[in-house]
Amino acid sequence: MASLSVELSTPTSGKYTQPTGLFINNEFVKAVDGKTFETINPATEEVITSVHEATEKDVDIAVAAARKAFEGPWSQVTPQERGKLLVNLANLAEKNIELLASVEALDNGKSVVMAKGDLGAVIGCLRYYGGWADKIEGKVIDTNPGTFSYTRQEPVGVCAQIIPWNFPLLMLAWKIGPALATGNTIVLKTAEQTPLSGLVFATLFKEAGFPPGVVNIISGIGRIAGAAMSAHMDVDKIAFTGSTVVGRQIMKAAASSNLKKVTLELGGKSPNIVFNDADIENAISWVNFGIFYNHGQCCCAGSRIFVQAGIYDEFVQRFKARAAANKVGDPFAPDTFQGPQVSQVQYDRIMGYIQEGKKAGATIETGGERHGDKGYFIQPTIFSNVTEDMTIVQEEIFGPVCSISKFETEEEVLKSANNSNYGLAAAVHTKNLNTAIRVSNALRAGTVWVNQYNMLHHQLPFGGYKESGIGRELGEAALSNYTQTKTVSIRLGDALFG
Ligand code: ADP
């Protein structure tokens, strides 16, 4: 494939030009080795197109571009101007929302309505970090009368960012927003399952006014391009969202190369707890949304559901009717709630877990099978009669599959809920404020929702306890991932000490 773009179309955007090159120095370029890879439409299992594939050599070129921009023009751009560029980018994303959401639905399989919701969050996130750009402040620290000392929050430098396929554009925004606000430059790799939306988004940087090399976006395979980024000697920081297995590899690569700074947003097996006194109708809606939103492909998915004994039987009956009524199907149909899983690999993995749950003796309350005969669709699936040692209760399935179990006391449910190597999110449903706060404080998780689920917001920090990650995304907290503190201490006058 020689060309750098193809003409494609989607049911909601019509025809559009899809860039296929690597976006380096504000231009689309071919991969040095001329390699490409295909991306598949998960709803039809057909090839959409091929894109250029970055290898180690392309990573070197992108990192060199980011280094040159960091040391050159980008260092001269004022904080206020950086903020303006981020806001320009948000405005351009808003102008192109239909196209970006359509491409996301095409390549990822999520419903175009949900994709538009993602885009709303992308735009909000970029504007929010645009607002932070001129509010990055140090401190004056008074140690003694003969010395004047202050700190500066300086950018880390060239940041490598590796994102997953479940929310391609949203993860891009979460990563680039705080990095650009604080004055870093970027080489970002999209996931190999979903390279298309990032390339369309890349066309906006030049128009927004970013100098060449500040943001470079490459398509590539994790174990090749991703590994080259993690081990690169001229990358100052790596930020990753994805599986815990890969997170470990990235941390090892950082440790054995140049000790680049590492932040990781990894997997989860989040508990969703419903007490007897909860508003049962609302709780069912949130529990359903908690696990089946984005086809269960959320790191914070509420996949372990605990319901108190007094309402357990009624809850299970009503929840399974609710789950079975979720509309599964064509991402471009306006009433679709659940599209296909992203790939054959993910489909097979999830079906493997379902088989394993059946074999271990858990009961399928609803689902458990393929949906339709084409595309990677899986029925919303609920397991009951589970025990805590079962693989389906321990491991992250990353699909529309959950377990539901009964509990009697608060003490008992806290023990079960915290019995996980993960600690990304959790939720509590109750009308009692004391229960809500007591349980929220006792849960070992980075985010706890009360009487809701999956309600992320760009102002609120998000990240993991335990093996769910290192560092926080979003909010003011994310800025510290992308700055380092410099202390300057000045001796006043001629006194030697004092
Ligand atoms: P999943 O298992 O859900 O596909 P991964 O953690 O494998 O999630 O992938 C998330 C991102 O990590 C993708 O962009 C992928 O290319 C990248 N990746 C996968 N393996 C590696 C690796 N060894 N080093 C660096 N990045 C990787």
From TrEMBL:
PROSITE patterns: ALDEHYDE_DEHYDR_CYS, ALDEHYDE_DEHYDR_GLU. Residues 29-488 form the Aldehyde dehydrogenase domain. It is an enzyme of class 1 (oxidoreductase). InterPro entries: Ald_DH/histidinol_DH, Ald_DH_C, Ald_DH_CS_CYS, Ald_DH_CS_GLU, Ald_DH_N, Aldehyde_DH_dom. The active site is at 265. Keywords: Oxidoreductase. It comes from the Eukaryota. GO terms for biological process: acetate biosynthetic process. Transmembrane segments: none annotated. GO terms for molecular function: aldehyde dehydrogenase (NAD+) activity. It catalyses: an aldehyde + NAD(+) + H2O = a carboxylate + NADH + 2 H(+). Its EC number is 1.2.1.3. Belongs to the aldehyde dehydrogenase family. PANTHER family: ALDEHYDE DEHYDROGENASE-RELATED. This is Aldehyde dehydrogenase. It comes from Oidiodendron maius (strain Zn). The lineage of its organism: Eukaryota, Fungi, Dikarya, Ascomycota, Pezizomycotina.
